């Protein structure tokens, strides 16, 4: 099973949306509702096959959902968001139907536009006259 790569990542899950920030690179990641729900269960150590069983119970679930979930997990591992971790029982508990409001596509979005701010040292990298969040010219 897997867990959050806490050496590099910060994770928050609120109102059905997951946000992951790589605090070494400043990259941050977002995903749709279904991806967020799946990531939340993965980070909790739930078995991927059990998670797939839960997704398959959702109305109008596509027949290739197992491949989609495995591809999503592979991408999470490649981005080093998740790493191997201890297994926890469960994962097949029902997901709310709302997680499919935007479909069954599992897409990991990556953003870099705030990397400078996320990596900035608010004491040493700030323009003293302009204040935060104005960074000094480098």
Task: Report what the structure shows.
By secondary structure, the chain is of the alpha+beta class. It has one domain. It is built from four helices and six strands, in the order E-E-E-E-H-H-H-E-E-H. The protein has helices spanning 33-43, 48-56, 65-78, 115-119; strands spanning 2-4, 9-14, 17-22, 28-31, 82-84, 108-111. The strands form two sheets. A four-stranded antiparallel β-sheet has the order 2-3-4-6, with helices on one face. Helix 2 packs across helix 3 (65-78). The chain is globular, with a radius of gyration of 18 Å. The N and C termini lie far apart (43 Å). 23% of the residues are buried.
Largest sheet: 4 strands, antiparallel
Fraction of residues in helices?
Answer: 25-40%
* Rg over C-alpha atoms, rounded to the nearest angstrom: 18 Å
**How many domains in all?**
1
Shape, per Cα inertia axes: globular
* Number of DSSP E strands: 6
If strands are numbered along the chain, what order do they take across the biggest sheet? 2-3-4-6
Taking the alpha carbons of the first and last residues, their distance comes to 43 Å
Helix and strand content put the structural class at alpha+beta
Percent of sequence in beta strands:
15-25%
Low-confidence runs? none
Number of helices: 4
Attribute tags:
four-stranded antiparallel β-sheet, 28% helix, 138 residues, alpha+beta, single chain
Quick gist of this model?
This protein has 4 helices and 6 strands; from the N terminus they run ββββαααββα. The chain has helices at 33-43, 48-56, 65-78, 115-119, and strands at 2-4, 9-14, 17-22, 28-31, 82-84, 108-111.
């Amino acid at each position: 099973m897997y867990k959050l790569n806490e050496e590099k990542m910060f994770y928050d899950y609120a109102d059905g949306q997951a946000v992951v920030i790589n605090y070494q690179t400043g990259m941050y990641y977002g995903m749709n509702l279904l991806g967020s729900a799946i990531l939340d269960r993965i980070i909790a150590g739930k078995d991927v096959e059990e998670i797939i069983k839960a997704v398959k119970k959702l109305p109008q679930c596509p027949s290739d959902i197992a491949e989609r979930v495995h591809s999503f997990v592979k991408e999470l591992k490649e981005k080093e968001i998740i790493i191997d971790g201890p297994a926890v029982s469960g994962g097949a508990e029902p997901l709310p139907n709302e997680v499919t409001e935007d479909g069954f596509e599992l897409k990991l979005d990556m953003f870099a536009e705030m990397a400078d701010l996320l990596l900035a040292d608010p004491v040493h990298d700030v323009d003293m006259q302009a204040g935060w969040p104005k960074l000094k010219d480098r």
